[in-house]
Amino acid sequence: MGSVGLLYVGAVLFLNGAMLLGWVESRSAAPLNIFVGLLQVITPTYLIFTANGDANVVLSASGLYLFGFTYLYVAFNLLGGLDGTGLGYFSLFVAVCAVVYAGLNFFRLGDTAFGVIWLYWAFLWLLFFLLLGHSREELTRYTGAVALIQGWVTAAIPAFLLLTGRWGQADTPTALILAVFGVVVFVALYLRLRPGREAPSAPPAGGAAVVGGVSPG
User: Fold this and answer.
1) Which membrane topology term applies here (predicted)?
2) pLDDT per residue over 159-210, tens digit each?
3) Which fold has domain 2-211?
4) Is the pTM value of this prediction over 0.70?
5) How far apart are CA 206 and CA 13, in angstroms?
């Protein structure tokens, strides 16, 4: 069930990344954030209630709320035109928790590949903290590109592998490939989109509106 939710996390990360890049009008992204946010609240609640006291199931499900609350928060910001600082500082909380979940996947759950994926998410949420909590608008396009790529690499592709039974928990080569890919691609993206290299393209709804309302996915 969590694998199905992960697929749609990929969709909303992709959409929110496209919004930050100025490809999608900001308010038009709100419905999917609501749909996926609700899914990522209902799914872990069901998993916890049916876990029969299995601590690892409860632990794994608990992390899904971080996504669900984020996407719902995004939707409220987009539709209500709220200031983005609250969402930014919530993103900092998520980033710290994501590092903890990465460690738990490495050393308790034995899923090294998802340990690396949680580090990907910690990096993305840190970018959202900088973008929203500290109004680092020069990071808008870079953050959008990172979110768009992570929608596929950390969510959609792993979801399909899980759904088809092809995901290996202790797959060290996969974890290494993910780690190297993340470092190389995100450093290259920063060098390409770094502040001052070229003038940022303004999103259709205006930079302030997007910065006030977008987040991870």
Assistant:
1) Multi-pass membrane protein
2) 999 999 888 655 678 899 999 999 999 999 999 987 666 544 444 333 333 3
3) 1.25.40
4) yes
5) 20
